[in-house]
Amino acid sequence: MPDPASPRAAADSHGVTLADVAEAARVSLATASRVFSHPQLVRESTARRVHEAAERLSFRPNLLGAKLRAQQTRILGVMLPTLENAVFAECWRGIEQAAMAEGYSLMLVTSGYEAARERERVEYLLRHRVDGLVLTVADATRSAVLDQLDAEGVPYVLAYNQAAEHGSRHSVSVDNRTSACEGVQALIAAGHRRIAVVSGAFMASDRARQRYAGYEDAMRARGLQPAPPVNLPSHIASNAIHTGARIGELMGAPDAPTAFFCTNDLLAIGLISDLKRLGLRVPRDVSVLGYDGIALGTLVEPPLATVVQPNADIGTHAVRQLLTRLHAAGERAHATITLLPHALRVTGTVAPPPKTATPLL
Amino acid sequence: MPDPASPRAAADSHGVTLADVAEAARVSLATASRVFSHPQLVRESTARRVHEAAERLSFRPNLLGAKLRAQQTRILGVMLPTLENAVFAECWRGIEQAAMAEGYSLMLVTSGYEAARERERVEYLLRHRVDGLVLTVADATRSAVLDQLDAEGVPYVLAYNQAAEHGSRHSVSVDNRTSACEGVQALIAAGHRRIAVVSGAFMASDRARQRYAGYEDAMRARGLQPAPPVNLPSHIASNAIHTGARIGELMGAPDAPTAFFCTNDLLAIGLISDLKRLGLRVPRDVSVLGYDGIALGTLVEPPLATVVQPNADIGTHAVRQLLTRLHAAGERAHATITLLPHALRVTGTVAPPPKTATPLL
DNA sequence: GTGAAAGCGCTAACAT
DNA sequence: ATGTTAGCGCTTTCAC
Q1: DSSP assigned state of B177
Q2: For residues B217 and B183, what is the distance between their CA atoms, to the nearest angstrom?
Q3: Min Cα–Cα distance to chain B from A177, Å
Q4: I need a labelling partner for B13 at 20 to 30 A (CA). Which of A261, A333, B281, B345 fits?
């Protein structure tokens, strides 16, 4: 029996098109297509023939063609500040899982907290005709990117950024202010009165500001004087040199704080090292409370006390909410602000303040 | 003057095609296209008209059309085990930077070290017609995914996996065995003789095995007896409960190790916590050496001693090497195995062993 | 149940 | 320098 219908290279799957499969299966292109997209519309025996041919030729559908035709890509764009902060890496896990479960692909870009890069990267995603976006911007209250997205009517859901209550933006986050307030209340409950706040690039981060506001709430509620935030140049305290100096200064003062509230966990871990280098013991001499609840915090000893966000869940919910929006296209449902539950993990690096009133340094 | 050429909705950029721009600029579709792809082929005044029209209509090129036509997507697929290990998050930074610099986009998927997911995710990327892949597989010595990729002739470059010397695979990594050997030699030089190895999911990771081999090399070279590896269930030591028990057992023995070599930094950080919980001080009672050189290691106190890989560089080089391969299409250049320089950071958690010969626990 | 044909947005011959 | 046209791989009316 002579080789029937031998279309081009059989080994190289690249280049095998649905037309080739159709030809090999002796059906029309339309039928071959239906076998994959609407199997119920085609006779079972035909379908089998097509599948066999596809198998034999190692056919791999070219999604580009389908997407171009369909006018929707089933790709979601994701923009996160960085993956080097575990918060976002954990969130990515949730995003990926949710997207895959719904048959959506992802394009990821990182902005490095830079507004210019935010614009460029989003434009990039948009050119790829992503159906929608999940993103975390440095500051949602003044974001060129979000304004543009709004103007163009591109569907997006914010993750971590907590949308303004009466605005039109969708977001998934914890309640930054309330949760931070509760964290600081726990510090106060442990006996602390002089509590400092350490933050990274304060003015550039809406969350940092919201968490600071929570700190103020907690302090004021107890008649305590909030201290201005200690702003570190980086979000991830990589240059411990400068940080150490700032902290040393602070701890040398007569009214040195007995506890620190850091606006993220990485900052807290860096701070703890700085304190140790200064000869201070955590939590015996100074307490430290973080924010984020990254897994790493439970790996260090003592375990990092922190305000825990459900990071993977934030990703999962953001994707689900975006997909809901996409599928309910047209219906101008008003802004959905999802506040996921936070938790307090007050152990390890938080303890009552030392009895001595004298400065420790 | 009446509104000249008013094509569809002006505000919604979605749906504005190059044809609309061409019409508005009163040129042909081809010319409009050339303005963007080959500007030198078109008169400047014409180009300006087209740009103006594009601007006015907020035209955004649909990359899908271009890609379909071009038969290459300029998208690179990236598969990493997880982003929750900072090693890969740092690597991603290098990958993204290199890809963007060359005008390539990225699709990222994570495999969670699972072979089944590896296959599924790669298939996914292939359907998107990525031009090539940068990936880290759990075990390159027996990988269904790589076999498939080889069979289909899909261009890829391994990152972290160190390709077999006389094989046909391209890889970018450090020399795992040699670098691990040097790390352990440093431990020996510090005076340690009883050195244990802690590894995650040993048999599933080629790198863990190579690093263990390096440990054996170092031990044997000094006439010391290598101990079998302590295999932890996870790569990222999340369940400190079991780990702690194993370690306690080990440290209670009369010939307890005085130093540990961990096959990655996260494991090392978890181990240090376990040791502290056992009442042991690091490095005074026990020394710990990690492997990876993640930024986090420098944030803890004492700073983690470790074998440093240039993580971002690994990503950058992998991308560049892949692009070189893609551009040199056809020429069957033989396998390029890039070994990037590693470094030793032997401070902080490594010190000479304690003088006492009696068990510490 | 199946086939023929149009078209998604773009680029690149090929003409002029 | 610019226009005409074909076609990338796929899905989907619309006929039959």
Answers
A1: H
A2: 11
A3: 27
A4: A333
State which residues form the domain around B202.
176-308
The protein residues having a beta carbon less than 7 Å from any atom of strand C are A 26-31, 34, 41-43, 45-46, 65, 68-69, 71; B 15, 17-19, 29-30, 33-34, 36-38, 61-62, 64-66, 68-70
Contacts of B82 in chain A (CB under 8 A): 89, 93
Tokens of B224: 């010391």
Residue from the list B11, B108, B299 with its beta carbon closest to the beta carbon of A269: B299
Å from A117 (CA) to D1 (C1')?
A: 37
How many domains does chain B fold into? 3
Cα torsion angle, A194, A198, A202, A205, sign: negative
Contacts of B128 in chain A (CB under 8 A): 63-64, 105
Query: Which pLDDT does position A334 carry in this prediction?
Result: 80
Residues B163 and B85 in one domain: yes
CA B225 vs CA A144, B2, B28, B184, B219: distances in Å? 62, 91, 78, 13, 6
Per-residue pLDDT tens digits for A58-101: 999 999 999 999 989 999 999 999 999 999 999 999 999 999 99
DSSP of B154-174: --EEEESS---TTSS--EEE-
| One domain for residues A301 and A214 | yes
Q: What is the pTM of this model?
A: 0.91
Model pLDDT for residues A112-168, shown as the tens digit of each residue = 989 999 999 999 999 999 999 999 999 999 999 999 999 988 999 999 999 998 899
* Two structure tokens written together for B360: 């510490």
Q: What is the CATH number of the domain that holds A161?
A: 3.40.50.2300
Environment class of A38 (CB within 10 Å of its CB; exposed 0-12, middle 13-18, buried 19+): exposed
Give the burial string for B90-107 (b: 16+ CB within 10 Å, else e): bbbbbbbbbbbeeebbbb
pLDDT at position A360: 65
Query: Which portions of chain B are predicted below pLDDT 70?
Result: 1-14, 202, 234-242, 329-333, 357-361
- Size of the A and B interface in Cβ pairs below 8 Å: 148
Co-location of A97 and A85 in the same domain? yes
